[in-house]
Amino acid sequence: MKKTKYLLLPLAFVLLQSCAANLSYSGSPFKKSYESITSDELKTHLYIVASDEMEGRDTGSEGQKKAGRYLIEQYQKMGVSHPKSMSSYYQVIPKEALNGRRGNLPESENILAFIEGTEKPEEVIVISAHYDHVGMSKGEIYNGADDDGSGTVALLEIAEAFQKAKKSGKGPKRSILFLHVTGEEHGLLGSKYYADHPVFPLANTVVDLNIDMIGRCDPGNCGKDYVYVIGSEMLSTELKKINEAANKETVNLELNYKYDDPNDKDRLYYRSDHYNFAKNGIPVAFYFDGIHEDYHKPTDTPDKIDYVALKKRTQLVFATAWELANRKDRIVVDKK
Ligand SMILES: [Zn+2]
């Protein structure tokens, strides 16, 4: 009797510890997927997405469409399809819905790739990034490598990582939608169109993790391993905790909450695509590197990206999404 007791206690302790500390990260599928996100692959993709050939990816331009075709090719290569209810990866946005702040725009497309959940397929985790940029002006190309080439290629690597897990029999329990939106630079138009015409009911949309600029540093933070996180506790206390735990378990970046305030003078909470989810009561987290000297200039080029920082921030979003997709209970909205 006595002996057994002694044996059981440490075992119970070990079990408790591993549940509390490791969330859903224990085991090799997470590790292998996580490690498949590499600086080299991000760099290869970004040098194409932000190349001169894409002509600054203005909404509805041929350059943007070309970048979009590249994204689709990558999803096809990794075996990730579009949502079943759609006939292609494109959610076409009619030009009537694209009357932006810089005038009328041609028809354009959101691009949607989808990995179906194994246990709760109806619950959807959205990971978003805009693939448009500001185009060309006076003969100069605005490559938009950081804005938002960085988020765009992060989505490709995160999708590849989840697909790798799926192939090894450990696909995400909830579904993941990789949402490449258009028209961001003209007033968050692509994400607004998606929120007005959702492919999956918004009520079943668990969260939006939005990535917009994660490959550079701002003057106050260069040399630090950091990322700004915005909005993560605005609607759900759990989301902030999950993101922090994911960070601690993996890349351990300094999470900077400077802009995490709807009343901040820079109003970043309202300035990227997550806002169209947040305004519909869906918890969001926005990952961002700050405003730097090449922001919205022709000099936002792929050679200036810090590919190690880009990798770590991409891995953080992946780890957060992994927990959100695999945890037992869907996160709850406990704030307004
Ligand atoms: Zn942007």
From TrEMBL:
Enzyme Commission code: 3.4.11.10
Any single Pfam family the record assigns to this protein: Peptidase_M28
Peptidase M28 domain boundaries: 110-319
GO molecular function, one term: metalloexopeptidase activity
Enzyme class, spelled out: hydrolase
Domain of life: Bacteria
Keywords: Aminopeptidase, Hydrolase, Metal-binding, Protease, Signal, Zinc
GO biological process, one term: proteolysis
Annotated signal sequence range: 1-20
CDD domains hit by this protein: M28_like_PA
InterPro entries for the chain: EF_Hand_1_Ca_BS, M28_fam, Peptidase_M28
Listed name of the protein: Bacterial leucyl aminopeptidase
Taxon lineage: Bacteria, Pseudomonadati, Bacteroidota, Flavobacteriia, Flavobacteriales
